[in-house]
Amino acid sequence: MKKVLCYFLTCFVLFAAQPTTKVGGSAKTKTGGTGTTKVAGLAAAPAGFAEVTHLVYSPNGGSSTTSNIDTTGAKIIIVAVGTYTLWQPSALVDSFSNTWTKLTVTPPDDNRLVFYYCINPIVGSGHNFTPTLAPNPTDYSFIGVLAFSCGTTPTFHSENGAVSVTSQPGAVTPAVNGSLVVSATYRYSSGPSPTCNLGFTYYGVAYSGSIGAGGIGYLVQVTAAAINPTWNTSTQSFATNIADFAP
Fold first, then answer.
1. How many Å apart are CA 133 and CA 187, to the nearest integer?
2. Please, are residues 104 and 87 in contact by the beta-carbon 8 Å criterion?
3. Nearest-CA neighbor of 20 among 7, 33, 5?
4. Region of 133 on the Ramachandran plot (φ > 0 left; ψ -120 to 50 alpha; else beta)
5. What is the pLDDT of residue 99?
6. 3-state secondary structure of 24
7. Is 26 left (phi over 0), alpha (psi -120 to 50) or beta?
8. Is 88 exposed, middle or buried (0-12, 13-18, 19+ CB in 10 A)?
9. How many Å is the maximal CA-CA distance in the chain?
10. CA spacing 20 to 30 A to 18: which of 4, 12, 104, 203?
């Protein structure tokens, strides 16, 4: 009997001395003879850029104020404005009185194209946009809007632009992985609804009457690298811009 009792006591001691691992929630707890160590779980990575909504609009000789969209959840809004050479895109206002940063107008030519952007904008339903087109005619103009959510505060990095029959803006090289690359193209006349290569998501309108041909598109670049998209437009010269934003 004593031998049996000793055997069971020995087994119990050996079993109790073995370490165990308990997994629960966001931490792991390892328990052993020398104490307890807590290993913190990994924090979730912030969400990258994701499209909230978009809009392509041509005043067609009417109001330069776009139709309404719902921008709820957007962390950055980018607006492309294309105009005929006589009518300068001098400013942009919106229905929520946001402050807009204007990038470079490309170029001093018959077709002029410029990006405006706003980071951490006031957003919501009933959101519209009105470019100031001095001296105010709206024939042949194009307005493209993209709104994105982002788990961090985006920052502007670089831009480029050109007028050419190849409809390429010139390359930009984003600084970090997961950057948002936005491109737009515009011609005041004689053009189809543009399409874009290199995996860009794009939206466009074709030339018709007083409607300027234009398009706007984007790509969230997984790995940062130089990029110079081509818009499929026509044999006519188009103004084409590109800009990138870091998450």
1. 16
2. no
3. 33
4. beta
5. 97
6. strand
7. alpha
8. middle
9. 108
10. 4
Token code pair at residue 165: 């029959």
Backbone angles phi, psi at 168, to 5 degrees: -110, 135
Could you tell me which of 185, 177, 194 has the C-alpha nearest to residue 233? 194
| 206/240 Cα distance (integer angstroms) | 15
pLDDT, average across residues 3-26? 42
Nearest residue to 198 (alpha-carbon basis) of 163, 162, 235, 227: 227
**Distance of alpha carbon 144 from alpha carbon 224, whole angstroms:** 25
Question: What is the rounded CA–CA span in Å between residue 137 and residue 63?
Answer: 9
Residue with tokens 């980071």: 119
The pLDDT-based confidence of 71 (bands split at 50, 70, 90) is very high
Tell me what pLDDT residue 208 has.
Answer: 66
For 115, residues 6+ apart whose C-beta sits below 8 A from its C-beta are 78, 79, 80, 102, 103, 159, 182, 184, 241, 243
pTM for the predicted model, two decimal places: 0.80
Only one residue has tokens 């959101």, namely 127
Q: What value does the mean pLDDT of the chain take?
A: 81
Q: Is residue 11 over pLDDT 60?
A: no
C-alpha closest to that of 53 among 187, 161, 203: 203
CB 55 within 8 A of CB 114: no
Question: pLDDT tens digit string along 168-227?
Answer: 999 999 999 999 999 999 988 766 778 899 999 999 887 666 667 899 999 999 999 999
